[in-house]
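Holo prediction. Input below; ligand is DLL.
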Amino acid sequence: MKYFQEEIERMPREQMRKLQLERLKHTVEDVYQRVPFYKNKLDEAGVKPSDIQTLEDLRKLPFTTKEDFRDNYPFGMFARPMKEIVRIHASSGTTGKPKVVGYTRNDMNTWSDLIARLVYMVGGSDEDIAQVAFGYGLFTGGFGLHQGLEKVGATVVPMSSGNTEKQIMLMRDFGTTLLIATPTYALHIADVLEEMNVPKEEIKLKIGMFGGEGHTEEMRKILESRLGIISTENYGLSEVMGPGVAGECIYQNGQHIAEDCFIIEIIDPETGEPVEEGKPGEVVITTIKKEGIPVLRYRTHDISYLISEPCECGRTSRKLAKMQGRTDDMLIIKGVNVFPSQVESVLLGINHIGPYYQLIVSKKGYTDQLEVQVELTDDSLLDSFSKLEALEKEIQHKLHVVLGLVAKVKLVEPKTIERTTGKAKHVIDNR
Ligand code: DLL
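Structure of the complex:
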């Protein structure tokens, strides 16, 4: 096993906690002095930087939310003058202004180190040909992965997302070994590979570094078998950096957190209080090594839990379990909580239907209705009404067992659900 920064990645826990405390104190002092938004926020909460004496004191600090980014658009949260900012990224969001973030030269260096760690974690090296099929642009995925891969010395192919046939042509001609994409786009690439009748032997892919959205274990297996790869996932968000916050090693058992750069808390989203160690809750992130835009206790809305057991790979960091979903993605239907990932797990375990699906939520009178639309894998079933009906019943029953809710199931023809080259949109809520 090779480590990119062994001293940090295998640091004894006590020593890591010391380093975290030192950096946390510095960060709080830094934002108090440099960012009026944080000075006001801390003053209002009656907290001074000198009140932070232990890691537990972190809880005294107020949360930062996505609304804070919007209210301070574009540069109000920056802690350095623009002449020190060498890069801007932004997360789109569906409505309103984007959340804008800025990086100093040191931030860029830290960022590429964190990505380089992830590349080593999956066994990547300067021997690899790495095709980046994340979008380049304001999205942090493309450029973020790019710089870290280059640091490792991999041969980077900055293909960006889309143009799938050309993507495949290059993959075949260049002998790409590492594919970097969202799991949704990787699935689309696998479909097009099949449509183009490219024999598996002509594709040299070994590893998929996926991220930007979650994928279930069932989806992981599909990607692994169809692309002939080991599929790993990475977590991050623009507000605190982008990719690089946490990522899986080849043991695929939770995402190693870059704890020298981020402190992660898991809280009860209702009360804001910490949950018991190992229990799921909302991920809250404090950056402790950022200069351009340090962030205190950012409410991510992502739901996960912490894994503290030692990892076989020898890294000492705690890990974040696969995200269960987002608090704002969780549907409440007839009083029942439903995560799209639960539906995905059920659907992928059933024959004759494909991995493309959509949840459509509506209201009939005062009652919520959930319709699950899912694609058939071949249209031959469409000729047999009784078979279709039996399949719909089977899906409905399995969803009922897992969700505790009766959903309407609609089987649709292959290739009717929209394909995307970035993150999937599984939910249409018409309420
Ligand atoms: O998606 C950063 C990223 C790019 C991470 C590429 C990994 C690889 P944003 O566009 O700001 O940043 O979106 C962040 O995406 O709060 C999660 O809801 C979701 N997300 C990102 N990675 C994962 C993952 C990038 N591995 C938002 N599992 C986050 C589940 C993820 N959700």
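Residues 292 and 403 are 43 Å apart (CA to CA). That is the main takeaway for now.
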